[in-house]
Each structure stands twice: as structure tokens, then as C-alpha cells.
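Hi, here's the filled form for the chain we discussed.

Project: internal
Contact: R.S.
Residues: 357
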Amino acid sequence: MIDQRRKIRLGVFMPVGNNGWILSKTSPQYLPTYQLNKDVSQLAEKIGFDYLFSMAKWSGYGGETRFWEYSIESFTLMSALAAATSRLRLVASISPILIHPTIVAKMMATLDDISGGRIGLNIVSSDVEYHRMGLYPKDFMSYRHKYIDEWLTVVKRLWTGEPVDFDGEYFKLTGYASNPRPIQQPWPPIVYATSSEGGFRFVAEQCDEAFILCGSDERNANSKVLKQMAADRGRSIKTQGDVALILGETDADAQRIAEHIREGADTEAITNVYDRGYQGDRRARGRELLAEGFPQTLVYRTFPLIGGPERVADFIEDMVVNGEFDGILCSFPDFIDGLERFNDLVMPLLRKRGLRG
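And the returned structure, exactly as it came back:
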């Protein structure tokens, strides 16, 4: 029986990189303009979605589609969308190794003011692109959670508005204060995506929300484990999953759409995402990866949820009932069409099942 008190929160994984999350020439092709993101955000708000999430992406993966070689910056975008929306929660992303905590503390307080207390912060611990930028410390993977833990500790202390003396391994502050404070107290929600043991500890100790891989058979168990880890520390957290949603009027229709997208797969970009170090024919390798891993390899490191309305609603219900998930973050081949389809086909089922108000 569904717990009538638990409602699933719905989010949009905003198209801040060209062509969204699908590595194909036959999926919709578009640039990540502000106007597109504004249109998506306003439609999401109109149909009752709960939040927007923008990733931090600085470079792409090439191929015929030049996948994610065009991207817009998360904090700047969310500042503009705060003025273009009135209700949606807005989650901006940043990597601690790219920017000092004193700067982020001020940026977040400013965004919280602009949005009227609707901003959240997603922390990105590492990415291969930072190597190309010359900003990836040596052996960072061996101490990344220790680093971001100290970074976030500094940010939180600065959000008190009091002068901070801090003598850490990575950061040192002497009587520095950051004002004004954020509207949300004690701080805006902190989000982290993880599948590692160290990441689970970091979330349980420091964060308010977590993103967990949806494609894993252990997703429901992982959600419960993470919540229990936080409870053991006297804290509570929310868990969410993310999906690339290919929604059809029926399961067969959704599979038809997926096969059409597969026909135009950008095999070079697929290799660049899933086997970057490969030295041979990158398009041939991409065809191998596609054959071995379809439909997973057709999207960028998210779970491809392919189905008609009932299957999508069943998937979400399973997350809520058996995994105690609090939210699901969706991307679409075409964001406007995808949101409209979701509203017409899936939202009524979620309401009927008690998963939405």
C-alpha cells in the first residue's frame, strides 16, 4: 500500500549542454540557450514540477554532434531563472576545486536573495575536464572527499555571518566574515551525487540531499542505507534519482522512439564518454559499446527510462514505495515536448496512485 504521506518531487535536469543527455544525431538537436532554458523552466512551473537542476559543465565530448561542446554556466543561468520563475526550487552546481569557498558563500547568499529563498547548491567533486583546464590537483581522487568536506565546512561557517578563523589543511581564514547571510537558515540545501562509500559518508554527515544512480538494481537499498546512515548521525536527508525519459504513448511507441534515436547514435562521442582512453577506431569502438550496452550507452551516464505512461509510473512508484525516494530528476530528448507528454500521460497516473497532490 502506498504511503499517502509521501509525495514524489519532480525535477528537470536542465538543458545546459547542447542536445541534452542523448548521444545521437537523430534525437532533437539544439543549443543550450537562455531562451530555451527559460521556456523549459516556465513550462515546468506551470505544470507543477518542483525544482530545476543545472549541471556544471565546461567542455564536451566531440563526435559528429559535438556533444556538450556548447554549454552555459550554472550559477549565471539559475540567477536569471530565479527572476523568470516564482515557485520552483533552483539547484546550481559547482566544483570546490574550481572556486574558493569564500566566493561561493557570497554567490549563494546573493542567489538566495534573488530567488526569495529558493536556491540549493549541488557539489561536483571531480571530472576529467578539470585535467584539460589545468585545474585538477595531483592525486585528487585519493583525498577528494576530505577536501570537499573542509570546503563545505568553511562555506557553512561563513553563512553564519560571524567572523571566521579557520586553520585547515586546504583553507585558512583569519577573521573573515561574509554578509548578508542566506535567507534559508541555517543554510540552503546541499546536494551531492554519489555511488561510493566515501560519498555516502559525506552525504550522511554534511549534505541534505543525495542523487543515487537509478540504473542500479541496488537503487532502492542504497536509498534506504543512505537515509539510515544519516539517521545514525542524528540527521535526515532526502534521496533522488535521475533518468533520461523517453516516453511514448505505449511501451511499443517508446521503443520505436528509442530505436530511431539509436539509428543516429554518435558512436565517436559514445567512445569519448565511455572509453576515453581507447586508441583505435573510435567510431567502431562506439558501435561496439552501443551494441553491448544499449540503451545505457545512448545517454550520458544517467538511466534511460524508456516506456509508456504505466511503465514510467510503475518505475516511480517502486522508487517511492520500495526505496523511500523523495524525488526524480528528468531529462527529455525534447524538453518542451517531453514535459507536455509527461503532464498529459504520467502526471494523472501519479495523482491516482497518491504520489502527487
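Let me know if anything looks off before we file it.
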